[in-house]
From TrEMBL:
Keywords: Membrane, Transmembrane, Transmembrane helix. This is Heme/copper-type cytochrome/quinol oxidase subunit 2. It comes from the Bacteria. It comes from Peribacillus huizhouensis. InterPro entries: YtzI-like. Residues 30-52 are annotated as: Disordered. The chain crosses the membrane at residues 6-23.
Amino acid sequence: MTAFIIISIIIVLVILALSVFTINKGYDYKHTIDPSPHPDESGADKTSDDKQ
């Protein structure tokens, strides 16, 4: 019975370590944004034509 508990604890610790490793690796990933192929259509530099 004791061996079963020890093996179970080891399995839980291995799964926990793998989960923490995976989460940390995901947070370290650097996301990038591709430049717009049509900069005039991006909407960032458009001025409003609603001015009167």
